[in-house]
């Protein structure tokens, strides 16, 4: 058991309609994380949520690249980028949070990926690995040190956020049964291994009390 402390933070990553079965970039079982996260949100003193929030014709969309299909890659100004189906376009239904996600306890809603030329998997840095979102500063200024991550997708936005958080000096747990992955070309196994190697703790929700 891990005891939840007063200055621990729950961060729910991208629990949005487009990542739920039926959505534009559906993650299998994505809706199963919602009740777990709702329950956790009431047990943590601090609760932050992120929202993937793209401009139409965002450069991470295959549709913005002539002749490209979703899940292929392209070279953008910061390097290689996986191309996705159009998803989480600002102001659309798909970008909204899952209707059952309880946001009453959320103290911050952080949007990311809104710059048309840069994607942002991580809640801390965009995919150029240099542009900060401000979340690291927010948490540090508030002296919050232990982060517990849940949400979608395990192998993209959750994993990139966890790895960046470790680099920023936070103690990081991924609540693994409150996440679901995309699993593109072995990404699930690879990112779980990377998280473990970086010192990220993987724990089930039932072990937090
Ligand atoms: C995500 C791919 C593209 C995620 C967001 O939330 O994991 N993955 N945009
Ligand atoms: Zn996205």
Short précis:
The protein is α/β, with parallel strands linked by helices and 209 residues long.
How would you describe the overall organization of this protein?
There is one protein chain. The protein is an alpha/beta fold. The protein has helices spanning 33-43, 135-141, 154-167, 187-198; strands spanning 8-13, 46-52, 73-76, 79-82, 108-112, 146-152, 171-180, 201-203. Strand 7, helix 4 and strand 8 (201-203) form a beta-alpha-beta unit. Helix 3 packs parallel to helix 4 (187-198). Pyrazine-2-carboxylic acid (VGL) binds at residues 14, 19, 52, 84, 121, 152-153, 156-157. Zinc ion binds next to loops.
Largest sheet: 6 strands, parallel
Please trace the helix and strand order, writing H or E for each element. EHEEEEHEHEHE
Total helices: the number is 4
Radius of gyration: 16 Å
Total strand count, please?
A: 8
- Kindly name the structural category: alpha/beta
State the low-pLDDT regions, or none. Answer: none
What strand line-up does the widest sheet have?
Answer: 5-2-1-6-7-8
N-end to C-end Cα span: 7 Å
Q: Name the beta content range.
A: 15-25%
Throw out a few tags for this protein.
209 residues, alpha/beta, six-stranded parallel beta sheet, two-stranded antiparallel ribbon, 4 helices, 8 strands, 21% helix, 22% strand, binds pyrazine-2-carboxylic acid, binds zinc ion
């Amino acid at each position: 058991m891990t005891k939840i402390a007063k200055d621990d933070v729950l961060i729910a990553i991208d629990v949005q309609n487009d990542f739920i079965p039926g959505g534009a970039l559906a993650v299998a079982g994505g809706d199963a994380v919602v009740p777990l996260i709702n329950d956790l949100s009431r047990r943590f003193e601090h609760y932050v949520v992120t929202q993937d929030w793209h401009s139409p014709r965002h450069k991470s969309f295959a549709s913005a690249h002539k002749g490209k299909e979703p899940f292929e890659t392209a070279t953008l100004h910061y390097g290689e980028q996986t191309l996705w189906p159009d998803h989480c376009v600002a102001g659309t239904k798909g970008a909204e949070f899952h209707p059952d996600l309880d946001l009453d306890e959320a103290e911050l809603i952080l949007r990311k990926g809104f710059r048309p030329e840069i994607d942002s998997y991580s809640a801390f840095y965009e995919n150029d690995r240099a542009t900060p979102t401000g979340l690291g500063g927010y948490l540090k200024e508030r002296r919050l040190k232990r982060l517990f991550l849940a949400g979608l997708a395990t192998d993209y936005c959750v994993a990139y956020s966890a790895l960046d958080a470790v680099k920023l000096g936070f103690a990081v747990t991924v609540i693994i049964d409150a996440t679901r992955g995309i699993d593109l070309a072995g990404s699930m196994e690879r990112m779980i291994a990377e998280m473990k190697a970086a010192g990220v703790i993987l724990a089930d929700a039932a072990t937090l009390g």
